[in-house]
Amino acid sequence: MVWPGALFFAVMLGLVVATAVADGPSLSPDQAVKSVTGGLGPTQVAEGVMGRLLQSEDIPISYAMISVTSLDKPSRPVPDIAILTDAKGRFTWPLRPGSYRLRAIVNGNEIAEAAVSVRSGQVTSVTMRAQK
């Protein structure tokens, strides 16, 4: 006879083990570059893009969606589909070296875009301004 709770425990244990294994080191090229949290500001990255999204009057646009597309041929993998700006319109995105197009989207409408190049070991700064 199998104790009814034993199966539940085994399944839960399996999930815990699977989670622990999944969080281990990964060598996949489409994994994000490791980032370091830097206090209260946006996440600090060792390599990628750090920027702001502003209205024409230098007013930050908070919680806007930023999407990215690789411009390289062949296209480079991007670790996330999109990110959001913070309350001050700031964003950081760890990206591998390459050329990318960033798009800012609010309420389903593209309001700004920028082309950026990320170099090995460097952070590219960009200020995106909403188009009127």
Layout: helices, strands, pairs:
Elements: H1 4-22, E1 35-36, E2 44-45, E3 48-54, E4 65-70, E5 82-84, E6 90-94, E7 98-106, E8 109-118, E9 123-129
Parallel strand pairs: 3-9
Antiparallel strand pairs: 1-2, 3-6, 4-5, 4-7, 7-8
Question: What attributes characterize this protein structure?
Answer:
four-stranded antiparallel β-sheet; 132 residues; Immunoglobulin-like
Question: Could you characterize the architecture of this molecule?
Answer:
The protein starts with a helix and ends with a strand. It has one domain: Carboxypeptidase-like, regulatory domain (Immunoglobulin-like), CATH 2.60.40. The chain has 1 helix and 9 strands; from the N terminus they run αβββββββββ. The protein is mainly beta and 132 residues long. Strand 1 and strand 2 (44-45) form a beta hairpin. It is globular. The strands form 3 sheets. It has a 4-stranded antiparallel sheet with strand order 5-4-7-8, with no helix packed on it. A 3-stranded mixed sheet has the order 6-3-9, with no helix packed on it.
Quick gist of this model?
This protein is mainly β. It is built from 1 helix and 9 strands, in the order H-E-E-E-E-E-E-E-E-E.
Low-confidence stretches: 1-41
Annotation field: number of helices: 1
Q: What proportion of the residues form beta strands (DSSP E)?
A: 35-45%
CATH superfamily (homologous) name: Carboxypeptidase-like, regulatory domain
Strand order of the largest sheet: 5-4-7-8
Structural class: mainly beta
Largest sheet, in brief, is:
4 strands, antiparallel
If classified by CATH, what would the architecture be? Answer: Sandwich
Q: What global shape is seen? A: globular
The pLDDT mean sits at 75
CATH topology: Immunoglobulin-like
Please give the alpha-carbon distance between the first and last residues.
71 Å
What is the C-level CATH assignment?
Answer: Mainly Beta
| Helix-residue proportion | 10-25%
Number of domains: 1
Our Rg estimate from Cα atoms comes to 19 Å
Beta-strand segment tally: 9
N-to-C order of helices and strands: HEEEEEEEEE
